[in-house]
Task: structure prediction
Amino acid sequence: MKVLLATSLLAVDLTSAITVAQITGDRYQSSLNGTGFTNLTGLVTAKGPSGLWLRGTAPDDNERTSESVYVFGAAFARNITRGQIITIDGNVTEYRSSSAYLYLTEVTTPRSVRIISSGNAVEPVVLGKRTLGLIGRRDVSPPTELYSSLDTNNDIFAYPNTVSRVSAENPRLNPGRSGMDFWESLSGELVTVQGVTALGRPANTFGDQWVYGDWKVNGRKPRRGLTVTPEDANPETVIVGTPLDGTRNVNTTKLGDTLETVPELPPPSNIKTNGKCDGITDGSYNAENFAAGNPRVPRIVEHIVKYTNSPSIVFLQEIQDNNCETNNVNVDANATLLELTTALEASSKIPYAFTDVDPVNNQDGGAPGGNIRNAYIYRSDQIRQFKPNPGGPLDSNAVLPDPTLRYNPGRITTPQVFNSSRKPLVADKGRSSSLEGDARPPVNGRIDNRIAEGEVTGAFIAEILAQDRNAAVIASGDFNEFSWVRPLERFVEVSGLKELDVVANVKDVERYSYTFK
Ligand SMILES: *[C@@H]1O[C@H](CO)[C@@H](O)[C@H](O)[C@H]1NC(C)=O
Ligand SMILES: *[C@@H]1O[C@H](CO)[C@@H](O)[C@H](O)[C@H]1NC(C)=O
Ligand SMILES: *[C@@H]1O[C@H](CO)[C@@H](O)[C@H](O)[C@H]1NC(C)=O
Ligand SMILES: *[C@@H]1O[C@H](CO)[C@@H](O)[C@H](O)[C@H]1NC(C)=O
Ligand SMILES: *[C@@H]1O[C@H](CO)[C@@H](O)[C@H](O)[C@H]1NC(C)=O
Ligand SMILES: *[C@@H]1O[C@H](CO)[C@@H](O)[C@H](O)[C@H]1NC(C)=O
Ligand SMILES: *[C@@H]1O[C@H](CO)[C@@H](O)[C@H](O)[C@H]1NC(C)=O
Result:
């Protein structure tokens, strides 16, 4: 008799209805993947064009398991409304559209739908707070530094990249510690973000928008953006994706937008040249595929004259040839640069001259036919080129005794190293994987090329400093990399230069040059 009782208790246990949390599990991929189940009960919290989201009605207090799951099936979802509690049978499936992404644990082939009740209240989980029942009791404030326990030494920028994959390791979630684990533990959940601050403009034409809410954040700067700092790429931010109701997100947001608007640009610099050799100033400006005839001229002039105070030298990037992206043999950019210096002079009454080296047609990356290159513009009332002797695109510059340069200006050209990239220093990044993707640490495209570029350019500078340790060398431009990532670390090690932000003791959250996008 006793034995029979035990058996029947055990049988009840084994066949007791399944919960959402048992399906989602405490790892990225469900241990139930590929199996069927019966009698899953949940509240419909949202509907989309191809399915709906179900929140379990029997939540646990385990912060690792998500209490909500996506149920795929357009025909199934059509007859069901938000606020209904339903019971279904179905299958557990791991789905992803690309091997770069994480898997989504979802329910497929939902069947035997039983509607238990309708018109129930649907409350969102408020992010940044402690939950008291809806999805059990847990803290839903995102971690602020670490992305994944799989990132080498907890560093998302670690080199080499792609040492492991989430899909292969399928780690147990640690939502209190790793940002990716935190968001995975809320996969499919209906949430509210309060006190929203926008991080830059929408990320794409759908209006997808990175934001943070009124929870603890790291790297916040006065303009309300979040600066990426060493080992901290801000996992506490989240993207607001395409609305489910067919409406569109506002696509005019910009950095720092909340309910009010803040200036898009930081305050103008108060650093001014004193007009003497010991007080020249320099600035760096990415003109973003700029060619003669571009309507952005007044804007660029305003940035250089008003916001950077008309520096003695401006290091320009992404200067296109005179005929923009017309893909012909022309590589000359003198009309492009003349248009800019003429407009600068008209606005500031300061004369500017320019210098650059034309590339070989279509060999330096960027838009085909555009032939972007680096160029210098400089105040001709303060600065002149020392013994001008311009090199051609294939003339490899060298450090000669004194020290002096073989070509002035000239390019550092090492074809194997600077293939399809701007010379001497700037390089395109190639394909990188998303920070939240499968590969850990994430893929940093062409990183080995860029390490080599940093080393070659660093060695050139080291040669100058070996001859004259007080030589005034500035390495400037768009390095396409954070200063704590391997290509720039190697550049600093090999060249012997120091990062100006570090020397000037600039606060770490102010060490940025770009808000994306
Ligand atoms: C599922 O629900 C049906 C109908 O309520 C019931 O007959 C069956 O025993 C349940 N199965 C399990 C595994 O709970
Ligand atoms: C999920 O299960 C299916 C069917 O058994 C299998 O083909 C697939 O590889 C599994 N996916 C993962 C991510 O384990
Ligand atoms: C779903 O689960 C059922 C029951 O386990 C199984 O018979 C069926 O083959 C599964 N369907 C799919 C598409 O995996
Ligand atoms: C939806 O409801 C209608 C009307 O009750 C019914 O005829 C139809 O079969 C249902 N469709 C599905 C997919 O359940
Ligand atoms: C912004 O949204 C408006 C209205 O939906 C649309 O007409 C416009 O093309 C969008 N702009 C961009 C840059 O996507
Ligand atoms: C650009 O240089 C070419 C060739 O040196 C010259 O013919 C042309 O006049 C120059 N254009 C401008 C706008 O200075
Ligand atoms: C440069 O890259 C192109 C295309 O990726 C390749 O065909 C070519 O061989 C490379 N050249 C050198 C010098 O590495």
The CA atoms of residues 132 and 288 lie 50 Å apart. Residues 332, 334-335, 338 surround 2-acetamido-2-deoxy-beta-D-glucopyranose (ligand 6) (CB under 6 Å).
